[in-house]
Amino acid sequence: MRAVAASFERTTLGNGLRVLTAPMPQAKSVACFLMLATGSRYETRETSGIAHFAEHMFFKGTERRPTARDIAGEIDAIGGEFNAFTGKEYTGYYVKCAAEHRDVALDVLVDMIRNSLFDPDEIEREKGVIVEEMNMYFDTPRDCVDSVYDSLLYGDQPLGWDIIGTKETVRAATRDTFLDYLGCWYRAPRIVAGVGGALGDGLPERLEGLLGDVAGGETPEPAPVEIDQATPRVRVHTKASDQAHLRFGVHSYPIDHPDRYALSLVATVLGGGMSSRLFTEVRERRGLAYYVYGYNQGYTDTGTLFAQAGVDIERIDEAIRTIAGEFRRIADEPVAADELEKARNYSKGRLVLSLEDPKGMIVFGLRGEVLEGRVREPDEVLAGYDAVTAEDVQRVAADVIRDERLNLALIGPFEDAARFEALLPAPA
Predict the structure, then answer these.
(1) What are phi and psi of 237, to 5 degrees?
(2) I need a labelling partner for 75 at 20 to 30 A (CA). Which of 9, 327, 345, 411 fits?
(3) Dist CA 302 CA 310 (whole Å)
(4) What is the distance between the alpha carbons of residues 304 and 300, in angstroms, rounded to a whole number?
(5) Listed range (134-143, 221-230, 307-316) with the worst mean pLDDT
(6) Which burial class, exposed, middle or buried, applies to 79 when counting CB atoms under 10 A from its CB (0-12, 13-18, 19+)?
(7) What is the side-by-side strand order in the sheet with 81-86?
(8) Average of pLDDT values for 175-186?
């Protein structure tokens, strides 16, 4: 695969706020981001959900743009798109537009983050919106099984809590809740401004003027996750349904682990694409599921390799045994050379495709900068995949896929977890 040219330039403002740019001269658009090293993992039980709630409130009005309509109207007037996302370890806000409107996009974006009103009446109205978003989420088993699984893996610590929070914490939020949260975490050292695409002239000066006076200072770090598992575990969320949704997985590695590329290829062999082992065995050969996939979710100090599927409730036992069997097989048997090469090319191809537009390119860089404190150039990642051997894949799979570390989360018309515990192999 052809090498990708060096893509990112990194600078730091005087207050410690980092700036990451990804010049793409061939582009006609620009993607402007503010990404922060903070998310739901940085909350307490009392403030659970505030990172996500704040994301909503940033769109509700500033002193210069007093209403949500004013903000949206200004982005609509330049034909742009804007949105935000909240994760467990990062939060992002962006505007993407034609390159000629870069300064408008940056002005609106920074104004939202720095000058939002957090009007008490708007907060009260938005509580109802978020509660309904919560209801939608928990009424959608394909999404909600993520919550059941994380709760099983991490228990009563922030990685085990729902990003959206609880109805109690959402309803209890006040203006001071937001201001306290932002005052603690929305500080210059935790913010990375990212701009990708046709950058235009005068960008450093523009960003210095908009962000150079953001408050600096030290911020606390979240407590490291605690993992203590010696036996397989099952959690059942009982819900009347015609289909069962499950996640089956194990604890794995942090995002910066030396074997991260081998682990990624383990996930790809298992469940990446429509010719993967899980898709072939669970859906095509046995007809047990409409969707099934494998994935590795990495965090800064832990991770999890899992499979997820929506399966026939009458054949749930067969589905679990089949998925467990594929996990065991990749740990016990070497991956064939052609299968490894297919997984390697699949992973490399997906990466390259994701970097073809300004938004994808700058998000790739920002995730590395925010979560790892460094940017991995695309060529480094491609080379990492190229270096993985079949022996690496089996060694890593055997290291993380152990009987005592198996976890199974289920949503469906079931009540007895012991029934499913019997399907998991007992640790030696």
Answers:
(1) -105, 110
(2) 9
(3) 26
(4) 12
(5) 221-230
(6) exposed
(7) 9-12, 18-23, 191-197, 29-36, 91-98, 81-86
(8) 96
- Structural domains of the chain in order of their starting residue, each with its CATH number: 9-211 (3.30.830.10), 233-421 (3.30.830.10)
Identify the H or E element spanning 323: helix 316-332
Count of residues making up the chain = 428
Buried b (16+ CB within 10 A) or exposed e, 360-377: ebbbbbbbbbbbeeebbb
Q: Which of 39, 45, 41, 46 has its CA nearest to residue 174?
A: 46
Phi, psi of 252 (to 5 degrees): -135, -140
**Helical H segments across 200-315, by residue range:** 203-211, 260-271, 277-278
In the chain, % of residues over pLDDT 70: 98
Run of H or E including 324 = helix 316-332
- Note the pLDDT of residue 3: 44
End-to-end CA distance of the chain: give it in Å, rounded. Answer: 44
pLDDT in tens, 94-122: 999 999 999 999 999 999 999 999 999 99
Residues annotated as catalytic are 55
pTM over 0.90: yes
Residue 264 has pLDDT above 80, yes or no: yes
Separation between Cα atoms, residue 351 and residue 341, nearest integer Å? 15
Two tokens at 86?
A: 């909240």
In a 3-state reduction of DSSP, which class is residue 282?
helix
Check: CB of residue 423 under 8 Å from CB of residue 318: no
The SS3 of residue 271 is helix
